[in-house]
Amino acid sequence: MMSRNATEVYWESFLHSSFQDQPLYLAATERGLCAITLPNESFATLRAWAERKIGNAVLIQAPERMSAYVRQLREYLDGERTAFELPFDLRGTDFQMAVWEALTRIPFGQTRSYSELAGAVGHPKAVRAVGAANGANPVPIVIPCHRVIGKNDALTGFRGGLKVKEELLRLEGFHAFNKNGHARFRF
């Protein structure tokens, strides 16, 4: 029996050849998409996120409820979609929410530097904080944190690994990046 204060979090796994068929886990509440894991993350990552951010979450596998989210992600990865039309249920600080909202304004196939993103949220000196908020994005790909690269066009700081970031940028037709970046942030 579920507690009266429990929040139902629906989830489904998703496989795609872009990630060598390693599973992603998508999760949503009644309000909208709340989390996506990356290929290097497990279901335990999703469970830990839900416990930390929602606390009273009850994870329920629900393929039907998650079908629109899975369909749009598949369309994007298949090159058939350039923008997502999904509701969100994001949980973060006001600053994180501002950064995540700014990420949604970076057009498909384009990038911004961490410095540019900091300026876009009205905190031009908060470049490292922007990097941290970018890394805490609970719905990567859909909120396109992969579109943020270093000032020197280097691939940097992606939770899913630089190979995944490179794959996503190439999928969008963006090739003007320096592959000599590193997994740690260079702003």
Task: Note down, in words, how this protein is organized.
The chain has a 4-stranded mixed beta sheet with strand order 3-2-1-4, with helices on both faces. Strands 5-6 form a two-stranded parallel sheet. Strands 7-8 form a two-stranded parallel sheet. It has 2 domains: 7-77, Double Stranded RNA Binding Domain (2-Layer Sandwich), CATH 3.30.160; 94-182, Winged helix-like DNA-binding domain superfamily/Winged helix DNA-binding domain (Arc Repressor Mutant, subunit A, Orthogonal Bundle). The termini are far apart. Strand 2 (24-28) and strand 3 form a beta hairpin. The chain is α/β, with parallel strands linked by helices and 187 residues long. The longest helix is centred in the middle third of the chain and has 15 residues, at 63-77. The protein contains 6 helices and 8 strands; from the N terminus they run βββαβααβααββαβ. Mean pLDDT is 91; it is low at 183-187. It is 33% helix and 18% strand.
